[in-house]
Amino acid sequence: MALRQFLYLCPLLMAFAATGCSDPTKSTNRRKPVVFPSSGKKSITKIAALEKVVSPPGTFFTTPYLQLGTNATDPGTLSVVWHTAAASAVSLPRWVVETRSPAGSGGWKKQVAPIRSNRVAVGSVKPHVVYTAAVNGLVPGEPFDYRVLKSDTPVFAARANRARPSASQDYRMVLFGDCAEDTAWQKKIAYQTSLLKPDAVLLTGDIVYPHGRASEYRANYFPVYGAEKADPERGAPLLASTLFIGVSGNHDLAYSSLSKYPDGMAYYYYWKQPLNGWGGDVSAERPPISGDRTAFEKAAGESFPVGGNFTFDYGNTHFVAIDANYYMNWQSPKMVAGLRKAVTENPSATWRFVVLHVPPFHSSAVHQNEQWMRRLAPLFEETGVDVVWSGHVHNYQRSRPLHFLPSETKTSDGKVDGTFALDTVFDGVGVTKPDGVLYVVTGAGGAALYSKPLTSNADSPEAEPFTAKYDATVHSLTELTVRGKTLSVRQVDENGKEVDRWSVTK
Ligand SMILES: [Fe+2]
Asked: What pTM, to 2 d.p., does this model score?
């Protein structure tokens, strides 16, 4: 262990000697502790109440929920998605979505973009239609109202927390992964999320257990995040009011045998996100699907095969979401070129975040032989990625800022060796300018925790030297606040207690 520690630190010491860029004595690297924004409390402006609308029984199979939609950059856009039982009637109902933005002001505005639909008739799930209405013209950063009309009669209305913020506006987001398994922990995390009332929720993969099936969404996902009321034993009514963004994990897309899981890969059916990804032409760029694909392709529509990789802007941040599953060949020139373009495509963004499910760096015993994403570390460093957010490992971990040069030598055990340079000066409190990329694992969103070999001590000799903070004692979520050039992060547990707080400044 002593030798390994030395090898890890050697490049860092050499870097200090060569550049002095992380010299702890340099005053430029020191800042006053960042004052954290108060969570969930905004100045209250009185807004006219939303008129109550009752949905007649049987109107929806899944009530409306908010999605990013296909526009990756315009903060005035979102999509409203709902499901109905497949229509057997000859004449289909006329659906219309109307918005009022900001919330409570002015009249309802009819959204004119054609409403799209895809029919989901897979496995033993009741056949249903997924409707997607693109919404335009929202006032960025403001709460807004929307309602759904069926044959001219309002059948659903909701108030959204916030439209997407513009580049000059702050935002607050909750992140967690490894969640919808119908556990008590999942419901407590959903409840804590509702108390924070974030602008958006970003799921870092393994959204639905155990096999990413449509039937599992219906049992474990929609009832918890779309619960009737906020209750730590049931979940919270988040989906209608809060934008959810989903990044795929292995439980979402890797069970790709349609003969075994005919309603699997439901990620492609239910998430309506930008289709600006790349790849998908060969099996090393998408799930290797086996079995009859006819019903699957109809249900997935245009989300397959590119839906696993996408980018979007949110406030002053450029997000890149990528599929990190075992079947992806992230070493192919085409995929690397696509990723490089994706990360750098908004030059004016203040922050660049990558979200991928399988963490390149972590200290847990489980999944130690799944290090393939480490090979992208040099690209992340070169393109100015600030933080890589992951899940997969069911606990919370934060790395030191790091540089990693992977070895060319391939190992047979799935590990990727290489040379590290660690910034041991950054502490996220008094020293907030990192030298390197930060890697965060926030996989404690609901599935059983991984506590081996560590529970909570990042200073343990069993922890990798790059790990700065580690907590596997409790389920938790990440609350991320971006205010201009300050990123403030809190890790909050299932009971609302703070587990970690740190910040980055530019
Ligand atoms: Fe996973």
From this structure: 0.91
